[in-house]
Amino acid sequence: MLSKSKRLTRDDFSKLQKRTTIRSNYFDIVISPSNESRFACVIAKKRVKLAVDRNKIKRKIYHIVHDIHPKTPHLVIFYPKQNAHNVSSKILSEEIKKVFDTI
To answer: Domain 4-102, what fold?
Structure first.
């Protein structure tokens, strides 16, 4: 699990200025330059109905991000899609790694 110091707070969401959106098969990512890397995972109830499934996806993403970081510090927000629930952690990890390599 990702430590609280590495997660975005509510105040950080309002500080996002220069945003870049990257779309993937399993999630959309919003990236903004910053002094330190911080992450968040936001899943709407409309996309994934069950709280159990939403929490599983969040845990998967936070676990992957704990091991893989972008080269330069950024504020990163993940918006997983509905099909991210059925995908293995390995595939999600590869997708996140590809995105972080392009930053």
So the answer is: Ribosomal Protein S5; domain 2 (3.30.230)
